[in-house]
């Protein structure tokens, strides 16, 4: 598998606080990589840097052979190639579900309203929300809203999907339906970089688990090796705390 995303020496500070301390990470096409670590370890900042919501201080980000960290790059063009889903659904309350889903397709990718609606509805049908297309977000459960947010990210056929703790704002009983959707995306060959605190899900779905601590990668391995045979003491302490 060729590398779709290459991160080299990524550094990012906010004032005197270094949040990312030289991250080197490659993500192969069709690979699912889970970023795990305590709050403040740099997971979300790393995702925001990949999507150019934060500019890096040093290093290089390459997406499908293009250096997207070059300051001359037009950020919106890069973002049009990447799908992002955040902790909070960020759906527009004044727009219907189908209009939320197709907004970027119509206004960024210049897809016709008819084509965008057809594609958006097909995706909503696939996840069992076709009947909600004309509803407004406040009529949906949290789990349904998050699934709509994922569909919105998918409707433009992104090269890369970034998921930032997408279950952390959900009630426990709603988590499963969102994770089921991510599981199906993996089966369909999506390339996903996700920050998650759902360790069982990371073990089941990820091809590789990457542990961040203090803005640095401490350890990375296939899920079984990572969870059953962690090599680094910091990783062992992190996993031990989760088991208490």
From TrEMBL:
Among SUPFAM superfamilies, the record links this protein to:
P-loop containing nucleoside triphosphate hydrolases
The way it spans or sits in the membrane comes to:
Peripheral membrane protein
Protein's recorded name: Amino acid ABC transporter ATP-binding protein
Q: Which keywords does the record carry?
A: Amino-acid transport, ATP-binding, Cell membrane, Membrane, Nucleotide-binding, Transport
Q: Which family does it belong to?
A: Belongs to the ABC transporter superfamily.
Q: Does the keyword Nucleotide-binding apply?
A: yes
Taxonomic source organism: Gryllotalpicola koreensis
Q: Transmembrane segments in this chain: where?
A: none
Q: Which Pfam families match?
A: ABC_tran
Kindly list the places in or outside the cell where this protein is found, as annotated in its UniProt entry: Cell membrane
Q: Report the main location listed first in the record.
A: membrane
- Gene Ontology MF terms in the entry: ATP binding
Tell me yes or no: is ATP-binding among this UniProt entry's keywords.
Answer: yes
Record's InterPro entries? AAA+_ATPase, ABC_ATPase_HisP-typ, ABC_transporter-like_ATP-bd, ABC_transporter-like_CS, MetN_ABC_transporter-like, P-loop_NTPase
What are the ABC transporter domain coordinates in residue numbering? 5-239
